[in-house]
Amino acid sequence: MARAKVFVPLRGLPRVVSRLTLSAAMLTAACGGSSQSSSAKAAGQTAPGGNDQSRCDYKGRSDREVVESNGPGAAVPNVRRVFGILGEGEDRRRVLFCREIDTNLDGVKDVVRRYNEKGDAVDEQADSDYDNKIDTWIRFSGGRISKEERDRNRDGRPDETRYYVKGKLNRVQRDTNFDSKPDVWEVYGDGQLERMGTDIDYDGHVDRWDRDEVAHRVAEEKERQEEEKTEVAKKAQEAADAAASKPTRPQDAGKKPPAAAGSATPPASSAATPPASSDSSIPDLASPKKDVAGTAKSKPKTK
């Protein structure tokens, strides 16, 4: 029997705006906040407060340098930065590899972010509900967030996945009955929710699509305007190319381009008249023939 698909247009569908995780916000605050105290520690030394569940790789390593600092409102250091020591001699430098923070100031680090040698963020893990278990995993691409996974039932496995394009939320998959298969799909345009698909009977197929008609019309209008701009720019370029290939003045049409300097054609008279020769061996055909004595021979008269 064919499955019936239901399409339900919704009015006033609540906007689902992607929120930054608490971890990202607190890391930003820690980065830009004032530091009441800062101290460099040797790798492997115990952090203040005993075991703070650090997830940065620095203990027992001589090529790591640790800096502890106070974030906003913290009476004791709650931000840890781990630097890697790269190069030798004049090329020796420090590169930030890991940063972690205790966001609720309970002495336990609940957010950790790692970086590559270029200083770009690579991944982040966070304990957003402060139960000492990681429940949020974030991946970055080119320094921008690209994927976020969340565990909402505290079983250690992600049941919500968010995908980002150029840093903006693009789509979401949710597993609402926690059977390790998504049953809700959300599609976003320019960061705004456009439509949502629901698998009502949990068989892996969408049974109903809900769409925000207002957002859909806005997206269509924006796409139409972009297409019109592209077409106008294309026609303008074609007109400019056509104008560049035509003569600038009507009287110049059909004229040959002027000859280059130094290639002027010599006068016809000088080209037709051969130069006079000074060679005496060439006979003068215009004068009458002479005898050996040099007197001119005359033709006999006819009677």
Give structural notes.
The protein has 3 helices and 14 strands. Mean pLDDT is 76; it is low at 5-48, 277-283 and 285-298. It has helices at 22-32, 213-245, 268-272, and strands at residues 6-10, 38-42, 64-69, 79-86, 93-101, 111-115, 121-126, 136-141, 144-150, 160-165, 168-174, 184-189, 192-198, 208-212. The chain is of the alpha+beta class and 303 residues long. The chain has 2 domains: 1-17 and 153-242, no CATH class; 20-126, no CATH class. The N and C termini lie far apart (139 Å).
Rg from alpha-carbon coordinates: 44 Å
Number of helices: 3
Strand content: 25-35%
Category from helices, strands and their pairing? alpha+beta
Summary keywords:
3 helices; alpha+beta; 16% helix; 303 residues; 14 strands; 14-stranded mixed sheet
Summarize the structure.
The protein has 2 domains: 1-17 and 153-242, no CATH class; 20-126, no CATH class. It has a 14-stranded mixed β-sheet with strand order 1-14-13-12-11-10-9-8-7-6-5-4-3-2. It has 3 helices and 14 strands.
Element layout with pairings:
Layout: E1 6-10, H1 22-32, E2 38-42, E3 64-69, E4 79-86, E5 93-101, E6 111-115, E7 121-126, E8 136-141, E9 144-150, E10 160-165, E11 168-174, E12 184-189, E13 192-198, E14 208-212, H2 213-245, H3 268-272
Parallel strand pairs: 1-14
Antiparallel strand pairs: 2-3, 3-4, 4-5, 5-6, 6-7, 7-8, 8-9, 9-10, 10-11, 11-12, 12-13, 13-14
